From TrEMBL:
Protein's UniProt keywords contain Membrane: no
Keyword Repeat belongs to the record: yes
CDD domains listed in its UniProt record: WD40
Gene name as annotated: Wdr86
Name of this chain's protein: WDR86 protein
Pfam families reported in the protein's UniProt record: WD40 (PF00400)
Protein origin, superkingdom: Eukaryota
Keywords: Repeat, WD repeat
Amino acid sequence: MGNSGSAVKVCTDHQGGINWLSLSPDGQRLLTGSEDGTARLWSTADSQCHGHFQGHESYITFCHLENEAAFTCSADHTIRKWDVVTGQCLAIYRGHTSIVNRILVAKDYLFSGSYDRTARCWSVDKEKQIQEFRGHRNCVLTLAHYSSRDVLEEEEEEEEEEEKVSRDLLVTGSTDCTVKVWWVSSGRCYQTLLGHTGAVLCLILDAPNRELFSGSTDYTIRTWNIVTGEQLKVFKEHQGSVICLELVNRHLYSGSADRTVKCWFVDTGERIQTYKAHKHSVSTLKYHAGILFTGSGDACARAFNSRSGVLQKIFRGHKFIINCIQIHNELLYTASHDGTLRVWDIRGMCKRNKRRLKKERSGQGRSSQKGSLSRLFNNKVGCMVQQENRE
C-alpha cells in the first residue's frame, strides 16, 4: 500500500459542510453546495473559486452543474438556477412544501424530490412546474430518468395518446420502501416496485439492459426489469444499509454502513470482491482506470485495486465525513462535511494501474494459447480463489 500523501490543494472558502460536489460535462468546472447556504464554482484548471452563488435561505442539500448553468436545491423548499459566468440567479422554482433532497436535469426537464412526499418536473427555461408526481407515502430521496425509446420495442408500447408525445419516465426511490416509475407527460405511475423492507437510499439505471438497481436500509440491493417491474435478483451479503452504487462493465459496486464495498457480477448475482479497511460507513464511491475510490465517515478517502481488492492508498486530511468525490484529469476531488474541498494527484497511481492492466491482458492472451491441461489447472485455481473470497 502506498503512503497517504497530502492534498495538492485545500479549498477552505465555505463556512459550512459541503453536501455535494458536481462536475460539469466538459470537465472545466466543479460546483459545491454547502451547509452555509451557498454554492461555489471551481475551475479544474487551477482549483480556484470563480463563482459564489448566494440567495438560498437555508442549507443546500444537492447541486448539479451543466456547462452554462448551475442548479442547487435547499432546505428552504426551493431550487435555483444560476449563470456560471455572472453568478446571477436566473430562476427560482417554488412549489415544494418541505426540504428538496435531490435534483436531476435531463433534456429540457428539471426533476426534484422532496420530504413533502412528492417529486416534481419543471421547465428548465421557465420558473414553471410541468408535473407533480404524487403517490409516495414518505419522502423522495433519489431520482433517475430514462426514455421508453431506450428500452421498449414499438410493439411493446401501450401508452395513452398523450404519453406517446413524450416517452420520458422518472424513477423515484423513497423512505416508504418503494421505487416508483412515472410517465413524465401525465404524472401517472407506470410501475410500483415492491420488495424492499427499508428506505431506498440509492438508484442506478442501466436502460440499454432494461435494468434498475436499488440500494436500501434493509441491507439489500435489488435488480428490477424496468419494463415489466419484475424483481430479478436480490444481493444480500451486506450487514448494513446500502448507501451508494456504481455500475461499470456489468460489475456493480455497493458501499455500505457495514464499512465495506462489495463488487457483484450483475449477470449472475455473484459477489466477487469485498473491499475492507474503512473504519466507518462508506458514503461515496467512484471507479476510475481499474481503481475503486471510496469516501467514508472516517474522514478518509481510499483507493483499491478493483480486481484484487488490495488497498493501494489512503488519503488523509479531512476532519469529518467525505460526502462526495469526483475525478478529472487524474486528479481526485473530495468534498467533506468539514467544509473543505481537497484536490489529490493520482496520476502516478493511474499510470501504474494502467500498465498492470495492460500486462494482465497480455498475459491472458498468452495463456489462452496453452493446452487444455493448463486451462483446467487455471480454472481450478480460480475456483479456489473465489471460494476463499466468499469465506
